């Protein structure tokens, strides 16, 4: 299915948010996730299914002021 | 006291725009800061190195919601930051205008209301508007962070009298001048006026020598605070001789 991952159209086989992180090689402890604009806590990723057209954000610490 | 935390330094430092990670690391040390601000962005290459700098600094982390233009974006970003950095502190920015980077006061209060109710300890980036400050306190903010000048402008304290009025209006709320500081003298002045701390980034990061500038700001903030505690002399409209007139010879 096709989703939007960090603003880019992305083809994925991952059925859940946690599976998507594994598919993309993210360390699950080092990123924070949001689905369609809402925060998804770490412990809820496995039970969060993905659907075509979903907007997923995977964020990490960054320099900021 | 910032949400019950007593800091040893009254300088809070941003971590963006440094010429290199090594300079950032040294500047944090030279500033003597206890609090550094960080952000959340999409995955890129240098995540691990930055995380290491944060860990090594020993500083308390104040994540921000920089770049958010709606309450919803800011709330989601804050929740992501809380999980990632393991802190309930959040520097809440809800930007209302892309050119001035002025906060959107309505969305700011709305986001602060939701986040305070959700257990966050909110540091709202605000203006010197007194009513806005009152609304933020009403919804649960126990720190306010008025701007000195637009973010990154280095203009210093643009509305000194407005800030003075704000200080007087909120005697018991910790107030941090956030944004717009350009020179150590700006920071010293804010501290002399009785502000509890200053938060800055560009003035250090964009200096020719950020490490030396971080040290300069550390001293300015300390001097300003010391001067405030010592009590400044009252200003006068007219001159008044400092040398006694009494006992002066008549030589004319």
TrEMBL record, chain A:
<dbReference type="InterPro" id="IPR003749">
    <property type="entry name" value="ThiS/MoaD-like"/>
</dbReference>
<protein>
    <submittedName>
        <fullName>Sulfur carrier protein</fullName>
    </submittedName>
</protein>
<dbReference type="Pfam" id="PF02597">
    <property type="entry name" value="ThiS"/>
</dbReference>
<dbReference type="InterPro" id="IPR012675">
    <property type="entry name" value="Beta-grasp_dom_sf"/>
</dbReference>
<dbReference type="InterPro" id="IPR010035">
    <property type="entry name" value="Thi_S"/>
</dbReference>
<dbReference type="InterPro" id="IPR016155">
    <property type="entry name" value="Mopterin_synth/thiamin_S_b"/>
</dbReference>
From TrEMBL, chain B:
<feature type="binding site">
    <location>
        <begin position="179"/>
        <end position="180"/>
    </location>
    <ligand>
        <name>1-deoxy-D-xylulose 5-phosphate</name>
    </ligand>
</feature>
<dbReference type="InterPro" id="IPR033983">
    <property type="entry name" value="Thiazole_synthase_ThiG"/>
</dbReference>
<feature type="domain" description="Thiazole synthase ThiG">
    <location>
        <begin position="3"/>
        <end position="244"/>
    </location>
</feature>
<feature type="active site" description="Schiff-base intermediate with DXP">
    <location>
        <position position="91"/>
    </location>
</feature>
<dbReference type="Pfam" id="PF05690">
    <property type="entry name" value="ThiG"/>
</dbReference>
<dbReference type="GO" id="GO:1990107">
    <property type="term" value="F:thiazole synthase activity"/>
</dbReference>
<comment type="similarity">
    <text>Belongs to the ThiG family.</text>
</comment>
<keyword id="KW-0808">Transferase</keyword>
<keyword id="KW-0704">Schiff base</keyword>
<protein>
    <recommendedName>
        <fullName>Thiazole synthase</fullName>
        <ecNumber>2.8.1.10</ecNumber>
    </recommendedName>
</protein>
<comment type="pathway">
    <text>Cofactor biosynthesis; thiamine diphosphate biosynthesis.</text>
</comment>
<feature type="binding site">
    <location>
        <position position="152"/>
    </location>
    <ligand>
        <name>1-deoxy-D-xylulose 5-phosphate</name>
    </ligand>
</feature>
<feature type="binding site">
    <location>
        <begin position="201"/>
        <end position="202"/>
    </location>
    <ligand>
        <name>1-deoxy-D-xylulose 5-phosphate</name>
    </ligand>
</feature>
<keyword id="KW-0784">Thiamine biosynthesis</keyword>
<dbReference type="GO" id="GO:0005737">
    <property type="term" value="C:cytoplasm"/>
</dbReference>
<dbReference type="GO" id="GO:0009229">
    <property type="term" value="P:thiamine diphosphate biosynthetic process"/>
</dbReference>
<dbReference type="InterPro" id="IPR013785">
    <property type="entry name" value="Aldolase_TIM"/>
</dbReference>
<dbReference type="InterPro" id="IPR008867">
    <property type="entry name" value="ThiG"/>
</dbReference>
<comment type="subunit">
    <text>Homotetramer. Forms heterodimers with either ThiH or ThiS.</text>
</comment>
<comment type="function">
    <text>Catalyzes the rearrangement of 1-deoxy-D-xylulose 5-phosphate (DXP) to produce the thiazole phosphate moiety of thiamine. Sulfur is provided by the thiocarboxylate moiety of the carrier protein ThiS. In vitro, sulfur can be provided by H(2)S.</text>
</comment>
<keyword id="KW-0963">Cytoplasm</keyword>
């Amino acid at each position: 299915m096709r989703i939007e991952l960090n603003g880019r159209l992305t083809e994925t086989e991952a059925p859940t948010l946690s599976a998507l992180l594994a598919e993309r090689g993210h360390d699950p402890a080092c990123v924070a996730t949001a689905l369609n604009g809402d925060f998804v806590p770490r412990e809820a990723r496995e039970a969060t299914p993905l659907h075509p057209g979903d907007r997923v954000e995977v964020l990490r610490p960054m320099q900021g002021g | 006291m910032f949400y019950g935390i007593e800091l040893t330094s009254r300088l809070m430092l941003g971590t963006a725009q440094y010429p290199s990670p090594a300079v950032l690391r040294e500047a944090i040390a030279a500033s003597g800061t206890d609090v550094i601000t960080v952000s959340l962005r999409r995955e890129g290459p240098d995540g691990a190195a930055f995380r290491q700098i944060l860990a090594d600094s020993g500083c308390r982390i104040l994540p921000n919601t920089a770049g958010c233009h709606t309450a919803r974006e800011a709330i989601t970003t804050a929740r992501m930051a809380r999980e990632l950095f393991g802190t309930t502190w959040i520097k809440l920015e809800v930007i209302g205008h892309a050119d001035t980077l002025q906060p959107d006061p309505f969305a700011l209060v709305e986001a602060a209301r939701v986040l305070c109710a959700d257990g966050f300890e909110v540091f709202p980036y605000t203006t010197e508007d007194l009513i806005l400050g009152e609304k933020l306190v009403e919804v649960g903010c126990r720190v306010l962070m008025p701007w000195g000048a637009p973010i990154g402008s280095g203009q210093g304290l643009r509305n000194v009298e407005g800030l003075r009025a704000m200080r007087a209006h909120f005697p018991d709320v910790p107030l941090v001048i956030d944004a717009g500081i350009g020179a150590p003298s700006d920071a010293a002045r804010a501290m002399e006026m009785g502000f509890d701390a200053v938060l800055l980034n560009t003035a250090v990061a964009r200096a020719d020598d950020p490490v030396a500038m971080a040290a300069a700001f550390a001293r300015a903030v300390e001097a300003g605070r010391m001067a405030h505690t010592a009590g400044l002399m009252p200003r006068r409209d007219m001159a008044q001789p400092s040398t006694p007139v009494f006992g002066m010879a008549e030589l004319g």
